[in-house]
Amino acid sequence: MENIFSIWTKEGLLCDKNGDGVIDGTNVWIDLPDNLAPEGLIDFCARLGFETTALSFRFFEPCEQAVKLSFVYSETATDISLENDQLIIRYQSEQELSNLLKLLAAMDPEQMGKESDVMALRNGRLYAGQTSISTIVYQSNHAAAPEINSLSELWSFSGMGKNNEASPAKLFHMNIDAEKSCLSPELLRELCYFAARSAMYSTEMVFPVTGNKEASLQLEVIEDDALILELVKPNVLQLRGRKENITTAAYQLARAKHWSEGGVFGYWDQKHQLSQKKEPPLLFDMEWMDEREVDLAFDLLKREENLAGTDVEIFLSEPMEVRRRLEREWREIFPQVHSLTIRSAFKTGLHWLMEEMIPSMQAFKGIEINVQEEAGEKGLELPIRWIQELYPADRLIEKEIGLKAGLVTYKLEGNLSHTYEVYGLNEQREKHFIGSLDVPVSRLPYIDGKHDVYPVSSAVRIRKNGVAEEHLIQTDRERFYRFYIDKVLPKLRDAVSDYHPGQGHTRPLFDRIEMDVWMSEEEVKLQVDEERVSALEALHEDLYFNTLDYFAYLGEKLEGKPFDAPGGVHPFMHVRVGEKPEAQIRVYGWEDKQSENWVTTAILFNEAGDFSKAALTNGTEEITLPIEAFEKPDRHLHPDVNEWLSNHPSHRVLYPDHSYRGHAIPIIECFLDTGEEYDSPLKMTLFKKTIFIEAGHHSNEVSSTPAILQLLERACERSDHLLKEMNMVLLPLANPDGYELLTKLTKEHPEWKHHAARYNAVGLEYSFVRFQETIFGEANIYPEVLRRWAPDIIVDDHGIPSHEWVQPFAGYNSPPRFPVSYFLPSAKIYGIGRLSTGVFRTIHEGNLDAIVNEISQAISGTEIEKENSYWKQRFRKYGNEWLPEVFPIEEAPGIHFYRQPSVAPSYSALGVSRYPEWIGAEIISEAADEVVYGEVLKSCIEAHIVFDLAILDVLQRARVDVKHQNGNGLSYERARPIQLL
Fold first, then answer.
1. pTM (2 decimals)?
2. What molecular function terms (GO) are annotated for this protein (predicted)?
3. Which of 134, 117, 108 is nearest to 40 (CA)?
4. Residues 810 and 861 in one domain
5. Residue 581 belongs to what domain range?
6. Are residues 714 and 604 both part of a single domain?
7. Is there a contact between 955 and 720 (Cβ–Cβ < 8 Å)?
């Protein structure tokens, strides 16, 4: 160290241990004599902690490399000097020594280098002037001070205390006051450590730290018979004990950690909450069984008195092999019939083309399919509904007869005589009629009470002498669905009618509905992309989303806002060919208790000075809970997460909260290690760019979790300097409850989309309840990461269906709750950029432009670009060219990137909407991964990785300019939001 003025620099008492240019440790040995206990040393050590991003409690331990701070009694002056690379403080009295230490702690280098009333430099020594620290109390510029309303918040996931709102700025405004009767040098050391660690978590500091009764947070150390830490009132803590054991308690207090970091603090709260959850009671169960639509159709034929010479056309929702067998059997039973054809009652047009029309297409150079435009006034169906029902006919035709899919075209007509008319085109583009089809439809009300839906119906159509007589028969699926909406949902509505305020929003109305449904339906994987024909998958989707909509509309009716958390909806579908349809339904209730706000008022120590018990109250009742450490789980639900964490024990893995069903949710923190015991993520993100990447939010979107685990390996392989320049926080499985359900659902149907596992255990898009008091721990992770890290960029890796998404009982489309259609994949991967709406929007737009350009360059020339081009053409053909607002495209080179509100709505629980002044960008990726395996899964993983690596690259180039402000206090800040190049 060259001079006294450099004490608060790397040349002085601070150091950069990992070589990244950021202060991350201290370099001082405070040689405190056994007969001294100057309280000003607490201020001095608080400043030490404030100046670093990491520290260990070694200030008072001998170290040859450290700058030694010695204390020498003097009869003539109180000053500090640098002699032989050692700092020596001479003092006339302990009080003057304390004052000098306070002044040193509070002064910035610029002030220390000037003559002033506060400090004076003479003959190489720095003297205390006439001004005391009490007259230069600094006030905060803008940062919020953390609060302690419960002792469980003392050491929180985000450091010391807890802020209600996330912020890159945090104020240290504390007073530590120890009674003289108990202030020994040993106790002083522990209080110094406590102050240093507390200040380390802050970006702004107010002095003094002792003797300041105006500070927002008070720690009083008092001699008493009982050994206890008590919250006297919010933000006022008392540590009491006898002089011989209070030091041990202070030792424990200074070193305690939040439970997520392997400590004990706050875990008594968490464990108590988990212990209160019990298996929910069975509210009611119901059974359903009915005749097969096959038998109903057969009985209808038997009742017909004159079938001689008729053409019989039957529509049944049965697998093709069943329909072919029935054709043979019924032709024998009804020989008087001229012709008998049995067609599918699910995706009827597609089956008709593939099963009957293809042989007539082979002679043509092109196919034109004229399609009736849907025009129901109250219907939820889109005008192109009958085009949707043909998907992916063109690719199947190409597969069967070699006619390129681009030569199979659709023409939408409002006054077409039939549902479909098919024409062949010769080399001269002349049209030749091939065939036509009329599809029978049923009609039933949608659960909103305002619209109707028109699903394809089973039917028996008897044509004689050119006159057709049609008898509709509800499909097995429709009859069960009607039973469900007419009987089950009203019964459930009545059962939960006596609900409490908040239920349906922050707490469920019921725990879950479990359905087992057995039906004889077609289940075929097509040899095109990931497409399949599955009427039961469609029913699964209808039961799930339409139940959610039922309660959303009920909430609107009762309260003027939807019930977004009604309860879990778990439909289990079972294919049972040739059997009667049946179903079992079990509804489990929710025992709603009055929300209990337990506050930890005291922490008790045992005789050895260790933590023993926590005393809590909810205002009327008091309980004591044992203080135990959180044990990290041995295994995790997701095999990729489990394997990765097992193979990477050196990575920092924390557990901020548990899911609603009690699964600990891990996050992975990636930063350049310092080797220190305590780190301040908030301070780290002040000096380095930080990115937060979330995966597995919707658990049926299966590629994001393995993608971000592999991303970390790839990112570090690509750049040795990555962690020197930025921090990464990864949330690999945000929704473990959804994933747990997904594993159950995929046992029988491994390749369905399984949207029942999309939201959380009670059917809630839990991002809506972030930043609220909630029982859904999965909703707390995102806010906690923002409080702890204040990231510059947030990336949320998601997915879209890998194959067609239809809901016949919701308008043959993806659910009405979605403003745009997702009925077929639109890309291998696309992006969504969230934008703010205020003065920072221009910066966010510029950042988004930089990210989009980088991603476009990264995918240029890759298989991702080729697949994106393929799916763009598919999306145009089956949606965008007909209804561009429902099937929107926002193009960037090689990739769709959406900014419009219909695709990227803004709401207050989004970081960039809530904190536009400091979050630079919030990006979503969407890969076609619901639910895929093998090479397709690998390609989705690769798409996510390339997408995210491009964001890392553009962030890595951005500059961070940190300023040390010394106006009304000590503070560090940098320009935010970050501006990407």
1. 0.94
2. metallocarboxypeptidase activity; zinc ion binding
3. 134
4. yes
5. 282-288+479-589
6. no
7. no
